[in-house]
Amino acid sequence: MSSFFTTVAEPIRYEGPDSDNPLAFRWYDAERVVAGKTMAEHLRFAVCYWHSFAWDGADIFGRGTLDRPWINSDAAPLDAAKQKMAAAFEFFEKLGAPFYCFHDVDISPEGDTFAETADNFAVMIDEAEAHMARTGTELLWGTANLFSHPRYMGGAATNPDPEMFAYAAAQVCQCLDATNRLNGANYVLWGGREGYDTMLHTDMKRERDNLATFLHMVVEHKKKIGFEGMLLLEPKPMEPTKHQYDYDVAAVHAFLQHYDLLGELFVNIEVNHATLSGHDFAHEIASAFDAGVFGSIDANSGDDRLGWDLDRFPMSTEVMTLGMYEILRGGGFTSGGLNFDTKMRRQSIARDDLFHGHIGAMDTMAKSLLAASAMLEDGALTNLISERYAGWDGELGTQITGRSTDLAALRDRTLAGADPAPVSGRQELLENLVARYIERIA
Ligand code: XLS
Ligand code: NI
Ligand code: NI
Q: Is the shortest distance between the CB of 190 and ligand 1 below 6 Å?
């Protein structure tokens, strides 16, 4: 076993809310049963490879800051990739995360040709398979990076040049095969540059048609190789492009419907992407369940005053409680899970800061699960909602929904009767109620 994280000797353990040990869980108790399932089964935590192991802290204004010896290594590219993987699996094991996620380029160095890249990738998939067998860590999802290389500056499936489409297809083919071999629970397609920077040079209809063709090919390939996981699109309204076609859950749902892809693709909802699209996290989850496209979650958070995808660790129990509430109300995860698509702040340069970020986030999600499941069990919100809509089960409501009345009949009825009186929506009372469930978790 590698020893990149020497200051953390033991696996992180649950010590309970009274513990002052910063390297212990205070709420995440993997085996604790909540509403019929263990916390581990409910939450299905995954650590992401890209921010945690493949990023050195560089931003657009400055170079890397983080202490990541496996990145800034003088070793040959494949040897460096193996060191990076050893560090990653040491971390997964010590944290006790059951799953991880990767992009092809996170785990394997790109060569000068696609053939070289494919050879490197094959070596690293063997390596990953061995680490997974040794540690028991599983793959929540794999994905191909179709946005970093200059060939994808104009998109991948939506590139104006079919040569780039073909290259992207080759990359996804390899990565989906590898994900299948590693028993990945899902496969993600984030449309990083599937959108436009300006409409002046964009044929939007052609681009959307080509994206649909690409997705049909992915679906066909999935069936051909017998991959059983879900294929997931990850809605995001913008960044890096000005406009992305998978803007939010509603836009993805309409796209899937229009191109006859419903039932084949589902969504991976990221908290910070929901915020960027102008929606609450809970709204996106509820929309996905309503449309039958819910899949998985990228758990992170933004910042109220910075308007881009900041990928902070989730720290707000209130936001996450409302999200977990919708997940539980919808029936919970099947093959999906909670992937921490999160990165350290640039000044958190120590290696063990990675532990503090993930421990806090796992505790936030565990607290949110407890509060949400108590709220659901007590029917605290559901009862009030049924009361609020009770009229729709009465005579008038069923006449309207059953279409046994019409506009003119409703006018006559309204002319003849007294004007209806509005009742209070009681939003503040409900906000206080949610706060009480959060205060009371134990
Ligand atoms: C970027 C996305 C990305 C996907 C995987 O904003 O969140 O990290 O999750 O390609
Ligand atoms: Ni993101
Ligand atoms: Ni993401």
A: yes
